[in-house]
Each structure stands twice: as structure tokens, then as C-alpha cells.
Amino acid sequence: MPVYAIDIHVATNGSDSNDGTKSKPLLTIKAAQAKLRASGLLGKEACKIIIHEGVYRLITPLQITTADSGNEKYPVVYAAAKNENVVITGAQLITSKWEEFKDGIYRTNVGDLNAIDQLFVDQKRQHMARYPNFNAGFIPTDGDPSVRGKKAGTVPFSGAAPDAWDAKKAAEWKDPTGAILNGMHRGLWGSQHYFVTGKDAKGELVYEGGWQNNRSAPPHKGYRMIENVFEELDVPGEWYHNTKDGWLYYMPEAHVNLNDTKIEAVLQIKHLIEIYGTHKLPVAEMVIRKSGNAQKETVVKNYETTKAVKNVRVTGIHFTGTKRTLRETIEPLLRSDWCVYRGGAIHMRGTENILIDHCSFKELGGNAVFVDSYSRNIQIKENLFKNNGSTDVNFVGAFSAVRDPSFSFHHLPPALDEIDTTIGPKSEDYPADCIVENNLMMLCGRFEKQASGINLSMSSRITLRHNTISHTPRAAINVCDGTWGGHIIEWNDCFETVLETHDHGAFNSWGRDRYWFRAGPSGPDLKDKNGKPMISNYIEKYPNAPLWDAYQTTIIRNNRMQCDHGWDIDLDDGSTNYEIYNNISLSGGIKTREGYHRVVTNNVILGRGYTCNVPYPKPTQDVFERNILWGSPIYRSSNPTLWGGTRNFNFAHNPDSKKVVPAYGAQQQTQDDAESLYGNVLFKESKLKNGDFTVSNKSEALKLGFKNFPMSGFGVTSNELKCLAMKPKILSPKEVASNVFVKKKMKGLFGAKFKTLNTEAELSATGMFQKYGVLLVSVPKNSKLAKMGFKVDDVVIELNSDKIKEEQTFIKNMKSLTGGKHTVKVWRHQSPITFSFTK
To answer: What is the pLDDT of residues 246-263, one digit of tens each?
Structure first.
């Protein structure tokens, strides 16, 4: 450790006219920063700003620029004094006098203060006046107890009701202007937020918004909540700020004297520290048209770094009190489902060799740490993240670094003779060679539900190691795209994930890169005039196309993963170039949707087995071998034989089996798995309850090539964080796969085959929002159904306005058609389509 040549001290009882010594400290960090710059010692000798115990309230962010850089030998350190509690916050004290208003509500006049976004009483976050109330659960309406759509495991927003936005409810509110409507995406793919501008002549709410999701859709009909409405201030812990007359209203607990209580308000500050390098001027703007966020145009900025901030360390500081960024979350991350706000409590852009360690990030309104555009060797180590509004750690590159970028699920790749075939990024403006290690992350996404512990997009070679990530509304770790891979994800403990959403993973990825074409249960849905899948034309001409963007292999190894409403490891649309081995999948299984070069070996998979529900044409160079599967079924897919990889040497565990035999059921289902086995794998029974799935040295799985791997050491390693971390529940699967495959007979009519859509694999493959309708599994070109306009992979949901819930209704209604024109509504390519035919 260097001996610091210049230590500058900061204390809450200091003065900026002091000299900055320990006995005569400065008052502000900004003054200490200026003194360091003036010293001329930055990058020449060790320099440190020592911040002493207390709360440091910021009105504007602390800006660290290239003028504040150190060098590798002498980094510049911003540190809390040893064993002292230092808080940097954007919250300001409310010191005006409180008076009783009525009905248990008190008020104080804060004058022309900017709109309050968060309120803390004795350091505890309070709630904007809302309906339903916080922790109310789901409130049924009009005698209908259903949630009116896909059901989440945990009620979103800690309280929701179908009538939260209704005109009948709005009639109770004099002026709801400024209210915020919080709703889940119809498919529970995150949340969408809307901002009330008033009421119309019918008394219905007028609002704007909904751009927070890159697969924007109508909001869920049941999971809705409204906040910032004065008339809803009706329980202790709720507050309302009237910016027109300056009154702040709050209902305290009965025993609280507000005039003797510490009350803090977060106004409009979104960042606490900004570490920005210099960039080329003017900043290049990109206009994104018709992305998935439902906006005609989204204007984004691409920063081209010309000089980086280097060698800075921030250590031992507690960060809290930033504004929520619901309105600002609008920027689509390529063709993934995500939109993002580029910012956080610590926002880095144009940086090298930055270390953030031993800090805490709690009760923030939006993202905690955001690593943006050009960034190299950023280290985020041994921090605590808890109760933050959005994502804890983001790594997101600039769009200008991406070749042929697209921004909507429905956008197609460029034509064969136009596509850029160059491998890798166009520029250096993206994060690379960074590490997130030994961090405890809990309860992210308190406000935004398309949030995760760690999110990667347009980044390269990011290592995520020994993190414990739990109790998340969506993924623990999310990778938005294949640009540019090379990540190492190891020794993480991820559990209690996908709690408020659906169809996702504890680890989740997409890979809708340059080469990617949509696909459904039967394969690619876009074909040329000869019926050949378009992607096959691309792969034949450019066999390496899937690796243009995902040109470096991402490794997922030695993790323990658990997901509540999806898959433990979910490689979704197009995810390519992954090696997945030595992981414990505790309940949700592993999924690899359409993509290439996914090698899944030597994992212990409990619960939902292996899902390969959407295929690309063979061969895909996928491998699923030497895994142990315990649960039912082993494979989930409408037609596993279409999968383009190889499956073999796997062991299906049945603890009640008396002998080990070939895996006949899997072989019959997949026409693969020639050497796979079925029976008792011989786990060491006494260790199972502790999550140790080591097999006995007598296990037949070892003869197949399975190798025991370490069953402990997941998650955080520091003793301090271990004491705070929770652990996952270890539960044995309730169901065990049979070794007999019973092929279900498909219903047939008018030359087509179909079935009721009733499995999670089919739900995910089609992009439907609930198990409903009839999935057309086969529609031959010259069949009657094809001539009517139906297509393979359609989900029939209405016929002549009659709901088609299952196959018997479909058969009955089709057989009873009379002559004339008929109208059909189907779900096709993950969107509703209506067409007509004449009989």
C-alpha cells in the first residue's frame, strides 16, 4: 500500500477556508478535490481525500474529470475515514414546522421546493399516497377474484388492483395531475409507467408513457397501482407533496412527533458521482425510429471518448437518496426487451482503472452503478446493494460501436448483399475487461421491474464472480445481446428471482444480433419464395454469421441458480456462443431457445429439465451432454426432434429406481440420447439437504463422463457480507420423470394438426401471455386450413368473435361453419393478427 504523500481531510464541522489537515478539515468534497488539483501532485504522488463521519448532502453531483486522474502507481482515492460512517446522499433535510391537518395527517410548507420524489423518515423510505396501499397484496374488483391475466408469484408493486386506473376510481380524485400509473407489462415482461396529465370530459385519466419496455404492450389488466394522489393519503407512512402551494402532507405513526424527527426529501438529483472523460464534440446523435418502446422516434447520444479518467478509487462510502428514473427509462437496448436510463448514483463514462469497493448503495431511486460507453478495467468489489429502484450494476456500450444495429424484435436483418460481415465492434466505445466480484445484491427493482442485479449490453469480457443476488423482480444477471461476449460468470449464488414477472431466468440472455431471424415452435417463421428459411440462406453464404457479434465465448460455470417463474438459466432468442458447465440448477431447469454454439455439459439440473422449445435448422453445433437431470419431464418442447444439436450421455435420476437402464423415454422422445441412462444416480443422501449433489464413486453417471464438482463456495466470500446474505431453499423435486415416453396424439382437422396451448415451453415459444388457445403444430401447404389463411405456429384465440380456449371448442366451431365470410384472430409471430376467409 502506498504511503499517501497528500491526505486531504473533509468533515461536516470543517470549513472550505481551512487547509484540509486532520485538525483543520475542509467542509466539502468538492473543495478537497480542487485542493488536490491545485497541488500538482495528481499522478505524481499518492493522493487521498479522507472523508470523516457524517452525512454529506449534494444538490448537484460530484464530478470527477480527467483533471482528477491518478496513475497506476498512485491512484487517487476518495475514502471514508477508517471505522467511520460516511453517507453521501441527494436527500435534503426538511426543517420547517409541522402542523396537524386532519384525520391523522400532518403538513408543513416547504415553499417553492422542487417536486419531492422520495421521502425518508428516520432513514426509512416512505410511500407516495397510493392505491392500493403498500403491502395490500392483490385487491380483487367487481367480485372477480382473478388477476385478469398471467399470474406473478409475488404481487407487483407490493399491492395492485384492476380498478386502480378506472374512471370510477378517478371520480374520487379532484385533480390527479402528476399522478404516476404503475402497471406490469401484459406478459409480465417487466413494468410500464405512465404519467397523468389530467382527466377528460368523461372523467377518465389522460396520461402519457409506457416507453420503459422494448417490447411495449398494453398493460396487464390486473396488476396496476397509482401513486401521488392526495385523496389516497389514508394510512401511516404515506405522503403527498403539492408543488402548487408548497404543502407537504404526511401521515405518521401515532407515536411519532414530526418536529423531533429527522425527515429527508429527495428532489430531482439522479446522480451522486459522475466520472466522465472528455469526448468528441459535438456529441453524435442517433435517431432510432419505430423501436420496441412504442415511440415513433427516440433520440440517443453516442459519446466518443477522446481522453479517459484514469486510476480513481472510491471506497467505504454509503450512497443513498437519488430520484427515481421512471420517466427517463426510454432508451432501447438493441433488439432486447430492455429499455434503460443511462445513469446511476455513480455514473462512469470514458474511464479506465476505476475501483468501487466496500461501499453500500441503498434506497436509491434508480440504478446504483452505471458503466457507460468506453470503459476499461472497472472493478466493483465487496459492496452491498439493497432496496434500489432499478438495476444495481449496468455495463452498457454506445450504439455507435455496433454494426448494423436494430432496435425492435420485429426488425429484420439487412439484406444478404447489404449486411456488414465484419466481426466484432466498430469502435472502442463500450465497457470491456471489467469485474464485478464479491458483492451482495438484494431487492433491486423496487420501482422498475425490468431490472436485475447486473445487466450487460454491448460489452465485452465482463467477469461476474462470487456475487450473491437474491429477491429480484426479474433476472439476477441479464445479458441483453451477443455483442460482444467473452464474459465469465462464475461462483455466483442467484435465488428468489423472477418474483414479480414471468418467462425469464435467474440468468437470462438474448442474442437478437445481426444474423438473427424470428422463430417459433416449428422453426424459423420467415421463408423465401421456395419455402426455405431465410436464416438458412444466410448461414449457407456466411457460416460464421452467428459469431459476427458474439465472437467471444461466454462461460457460465460453477454457479448456483434458482428461478421462481421461468428457468434457472434461460438462453432466449438467438443467444449464441456459450459454454455452460458445473452449475447447480435448483428448480427451473435450463433453456436454450434458437441459437448456435451452446455447449451445456456436466450440470446438475433439478425440476424443469432441459427446454429446447424453439429450433433453428440443423446443424446448430449445440451440445447437451453428461448432465444429471432430476425432475419431470426431462425435455420440454412441442417437438424435440427438430432441435439442431446433439444430446447424449445424460443421466435421468429416479431415487426409487432399483437398477440403472437405458433412458428409453428420452430416446423415444428425442430420437437421440443413445447412451443416456435412467435410474438412481446415487447422490450422497446425507448431503442433499445442504445442497450437495455429489454422486457416489459407484454412480453410473461417472462412467458416462460426468465429473463431480465443488458444491459449496457460491456467492460472497467476505465475512461481513456473508453475515448479511440469505441462502436459497434446497428442495427435492416433487415429480420424477418416467422412463416411458407416451406420445400424445394430436387432434386433426382439415389436413392440419393442433393442440391446446397448455405448457410453459409453448407459452415461451409463442410469446403468448397466458396458457390459452389452440397451437397449430402442422399446417401443410395445400391443406384446407392453409387455404383459409392459417399458418403453422399460429395460436387460434378467436373465431367469429367466439373465444377459442382449447382444441375441442376449435373443432366444434370449425365444423359448424356455414357458408360466407368468417373472421379469425390468431397470435402470430408474437403479435395478434386478424384475417378473414370465405367458406
So the answer is: 999 999 999 999 999 999
**Tens digits of residue pLDDT in 638-674:** 677 888 899 999 999 999 999 999 999 999 998 999 9
Helix (H) or strand (E) run with residue 808 in it: helix 807-815
Question: Among residues 506, 650, 707, 654, which one has the least CA distance to residue 587?
Answer: 506
The backbone torsions φ and ψ at residue 588, rounded to the nearest 5 degrees and listed phi first, read -100, -5
Cβ neighbour number for residue 745 with a 10 Å cutoff? 8
Beta strands in 251-322 (DSSP E): 263-266, 273-276, 278-279, 284-289, 297-302, 305-307, 309-315, 318-320
Which residues have CB under 8 Å from 566's CB, separation 6+?
A: 498, 502, 503, 504, 505, 506, 508, 588
The b-or-e profile of 756-771 (16+ CB within 10 A means b, else e) is bbebbbbbbbbbbbee
Q: How far is CA 169 from the centre of its chain?
A: 32
Q: Is the pLDDT of residue 834 over 60?
A: yes
Pairing of strands 91-93, 263-266: antiparallel
d(CA 578, CA 573): 13
Q: Please name the residue that has the C-alpha cell 420496441.
A: 292
May I ask the CATH class of domain 6-90?
alpha beta
Exposure letters 216-226 (e unless 16+ CB within 10 A, then b) = bbebbebbbbb
Taking the C-alpha atoms of residue 302 and residue 426, their distance in angstroms, rounded to an integer, is: 13
Query: Hey, what amino acid is at 832?
Result: P
The CATH architecture to which 747-838 belongs is Roll (2.30)
Amino acid found at 688: L
Closest CA to 272 of 521, 30, 593: 30
Interacting residues of 386 by C-beta distance below 8 A, sequence separation 6+: 360, 361, 362, 363, 440, 441, 442, 443
* Side chain identity, residue 293: N
Residue 105 host element (H or E): strand 105-109
- Cell of residue 238, nine digits: 404515506
Cell 444416480 appears where?
681
Taking the alpha carbons of 212, 213, 217, 218 in that order, is the dihedral positive or negative?
negative
pLDDT tier at 4, thresholds 50, 70, 90: low
Distance CA 769, CA 785 (A): 25
CB within 8 A of 663, min separation 6: which ones? 634, 650, 651, 652, 673, 676, 677, 678, 739
Residue 726 CA, distance from chain mean position: 21
User: Percent of the chain having pLDDT more than 90?
Assistant: 95
What is the sign of the dihedral through the CA atoms of 530, 535, 536 and 539?
Answer: positive
CB 547 within 8 A of CB 539: no
Distances (CA, A) of 597 to 513, 621, 653: 14, 5, 27
Count the neighbouring beta carbons within 10 Å of the beta carbon of residue 579: 15
Nearest Cα to Cα of residue 183 among 218, 153, 135: 218
User: Which residue type occupies 185?
Assistant: H
CB-CB contact of 451 with 472 (8 Å): yes
Is the separation of the CB atoms in 572 and 508 below 8 Å? yes
Angstrom distances, CA of residue 580 to CA of 405, 531, 556? 27, 34, 5
The H helix count followed by the E strand count for the chain is: 10, 68
Residue 111, C-alpha cell as written in the block: 415553499
| Residue 554 Cα distances to 179, 192, 333, 557, 561, angstroms | 43, 31, 19, 10, 17
φ and ψ at residue 690, rounded to 5 degrees: -95, 10
Q: What is the pLDDT of residues 163-174, one digit of tens each?
A: 999 999 999 999
Query: Residues 245, 247, 248, 253: what is their CA dihedral angle, to the nearest 10 degrees?
Result: -150
